[in-house]
Specification:
This protein is α+β, with helices and mostly antiparallel strands. It is 52% helix and 18% strand. It has helices at 11-28, 37-43, 63-71, 81-88, 109-117, 134-144, 147-160, 167-180, 185-196; strands at 32-35, 51-57, 75-76, 90-94, 100-106, 119-124, 127-131.
């Protein structure tokens, strides 16, 4: 029996949507990677998720064609999703059966690196999706810095093994992000988790 999400959407519907999105992005020649709940299930700990999260590398100033192509294919979740996407750098869509699709419009050096480093992970027999690496997941989660994000960071370290992670890369990517956010404590908290686990 297929496990279900809290919103009663079968997990295989999420994977089918992710596969469809991946095929579309690849047909457009776009650089992207999956982030969020599905990736957490792989690198951190199994838990339910009810939407699909993707980083799409658009760069700064060239977001329009990406947004328009996606809005022509999927329903928006906001009355003015296009303008919202330009301002907030995230396009909020949904599939025909109501599954949420959150697309982060990537442009930072870190986002370029994350999409470039992404690799196919078999999530179901015969289905591989381009997931961000465990290191990039840690950077994203530490930068977001919410309580659940830190739990995900901790479990990623535990599950992957701290000696198997590329810590030089993690801190190289996270340091300028933490500085831009004016939150140096992010680095201290991550260092403490690395030492503890």
């Amino acid at each position: 029996m297929v496990p279900e999400t809290p919103s009663n959407l079968p997990l295989n519907e999420l994977l089918a949507l992710a596969s469809e999105l991946q095929a579309f992005f690849e047909s457009q020649g776009w650089a992207f990677c999956f982030i969020g709940g599905m990736v957490v299930q792989t690198w951190s700990e199994p838990r339910y998720t009810k939407d699909v999260d993707i980083t799409l590398l658009t760069g700064f100033g060239n977001e329009g064609p990406f947004i328009d192509a996606l809005l022509a294919r999927y329903r928006s979740r906001l009355p003015d999703a296009r303008n919202f996407a330009f301002i907030n750098r995230v396009l909020l869509l949904e599939s025909t059966n109501g599954i949420g699709i959150d697309i982060a419009l990537g442009a930072l050096d870190f986002e370029e690196a994350a999409t470039r480093r992404a690799k196919p992970v078999e999530v179901y027999p015969g289905l591989s999706l381009r997931f961000c690496t465990a290191e990039d997941l840690i950077v994203m989660k530490a930068f977001a810095s919410r309580p659940q994000d830190w739990m995900d960071v901790r479990m990623t370290i535990v599950r992957q093994g701290k000696n198997k992670l590329d810590w030089d890369y993690i801190f190289k990517q996270l340091t300028p992000l933490a500085e831009a956010k004016e939150a140096p404590d992010i680095l201290d908290q991550l260092s403490a988790l690395r030492s503890r686990y």
